[in-house]
Amino acid sequence: MKLHHIALAVAALAVGTAHADLPNGSAAETVVNNANANGRVLYISGASAVKKGFSGIINSLFSGTTYWFAEGAKSDYLAVAGKLAAATGTWNANDDVIVIYRTGGGSVYGVNPVARAEAITSLNVTDATCAIGVTPGTGASTDPYICAKDTRVPDVGVSDVAPFMFKFGVNTEGETPAAELNEAELADLTATPIYGLSFGVPVTSTVPANVKFNRSLVAAIMTGNVGTWDQVDSTLSGDIVICRRTPGSGTQAVMNLWAGNFPCSDQANPPADRGSSYAENQVWDEVARKFTITPSTPGMGGLVVVENFASGDVATCLDKAVTGGTYTTADRDGLPVTVDFGTGGHKAVGVLSMDSLGKSKTAGNWQFRSLDGAGKIVQDVAGAAPTTTGDGKFPTLATYENGDWDLQGWVSFNVPSRTTGNKLALATAFLNKAQDPAILGNIGDLKYVAAGIPTSGYTGGQVLDAAYLNGNQCAPYNRNYND
C-alpha cells in the first residue's frame, strides 16, 4: 500500500487551507454528510483502466453538480460525491452517494483484498477529513478537495485481467509475495469482463526507428533471454533497460501472459525482474531501495530491469533513461524508491496500456512501436486519431477490433458475494455504464485503444470481433464466427 502518500495528503491540508473541513454550510458538506450518515458509500479498488472513463461513467449515473476529492498531487485515490440520477436498489433518485476509486498498487488490489475482505488504504471522504486544497479546491474534477486517508474493505474491484491470473510470486503483491487466491476465494468473486484494452511496447528514441520488433524478440527481452542491444541489431550496443511494473500490476500481468504464457502453462517463461539485472554495478540496492543505472564495461553488462509502482512511473522511467537524472517510484510494498539514470543516453523498452497513447509523441523521448516491422504510432494532438509511420502491425483501434492485435487485457469487474443490496445495485449500474461502447467512444484516452467485449451484448464499431474461447483468457483468441 502507498503509505508514503499519507504525508502528501497531510502536507496538502496544512498548506493554503483556510480550515480543516469542507466549507461550512456548503452543498458539498451537505452531500458528504448525508451520504456517510446513510451508508451510501461504494469503494472500488484496483486497476487504473476504468479511471480513464470514471468521469463519463459518473456523469451518466449522477445528476446535477458533483464534488470531487483526491489525496493531493497524485491521483491514486479519487472520489466523487453527488446525487443519483436514477434509483439503484432502494436508494432513490437524488439520494446523496459517494464513490471512492483507488488505483494505487494496481490490479491485484482489485482481486486479493476484495475476495478476502481485507481493509486497505482508502480515501477518507468526510466533512472532518477533507478540506479546500491549495488551488483553492472548488470540488471540481480539475480542482478537487483534498482528503486524508483511512483503511476500509473494498466493495468491488477492477483488474486488467481475470482474477485467476494473479498467481503466487510473479503476479502477487509485496516484497514477501502475497499468497494467491485459493479456489474458494476465487469462487466467491463474480468476475465480469468490462471491455478490452490494448497494450503496447514503448521504446525510447535512442533506439533507431529502423530497428524491427516482433513478438518473439519482445518476449525474449521481457523474459531475460536477450540482454544487450547487439543481440537485437548488430549495429547497436549497450545494455537493454526494461521499464516494467512491480508484481501485482495488471499491466505486468498482461505482458507476463503475452510474452511468457504465465500463468497459463506449466512451461511458462517467467518475466525478468529487478534481480535479473547485471551485478557489475549493483543496479538494485535492496537496503537503500535504489536503482543506479550506469553504462557497463563492454562485455560485462546485460539486462537492466527497473520496477515501477505505477504506469506513470514507467513513462517517467522511459523519459529518464534518455535524459538522465533521478525520479521516485515505490517498491513492492509501496515504500519510496529512488531511480538514478545518471547522464542518460540509455536504450530502454517497456510495457504500457495504450491509454497512455497521448504520451507517445513524435518529438518525445519514447514512442509506441509496431510489431513485425519498424514503425511508430503517436498522438501529437490530444483527442485526435493517432498517426503511424514506418511499417509493421500497429495497435490501432481497427487492428485491435478485428483481432490482429492480441497484446491486450480484458478488464474485469470483480464483485464478492458479501456485496449485496443497494451497493450491489450501484456497482451493477456502474458496470453497465463502463461496458457501454458509446461511453468508451466518448473518452479521449480510450476511444482509439479500447473496445467492448463480444459477449456483452453490444455490437458495432467499438466492439471486438475476436474473443477467448469460452471466455477463458488462457484459451485461444479467435475471431468471432458470427462476424
Task: Walk me through the structure.
The protein has eleven helices and 25 strands. It is of the alpha+beta class. Strands 1, 2, 3, 4, 6, 7, 9, 10, 18, 19, 20, 21, 22 and 23 form a 14-stranded mixed beta sheet that branches. Strand 19 and strand 20 form a beta hairpin. It is globular.
Quick overview:
This protein has 483 residues and is an alpha+beta fold. Helix content is 20%, strand content 26%.
Blueprint (SSEs and pairs):
Elements: H1 5-14, H2 27-37, E1 41-46, H3 54-61, E2 62-70, E3 77-84, E4 96-102, H4 112-116, E5 120-123, E6 130-131, E7 145-147, E8 149-152, E9 156-159, H5 183-187, E10 189-204, H6 215-222, E11 240-245, H7 250-260, E12 284-285, E13 290-292, E14 304-308, H8 311-323, E15 326-330, E16 336-340, E17 347-350, E18 352-353, E19 366-369, E20 375-378, E21 387-390, H9 397-401, E22 408-416, H10 421-435, H11 437-440, E23 450-451, E24 466-468, E25 477-479
Parallel strand pairs: 1-4, 1-9, 2-7, 11-14, 11-17, 13-16
Antiparallel strand pairs: 2-3, 3-4, 5-8, 6-7, 9-22, 10-18, 10-19, 10-22, 10-23, 12-13, 15-16, 19-20, 20-21, 24-25
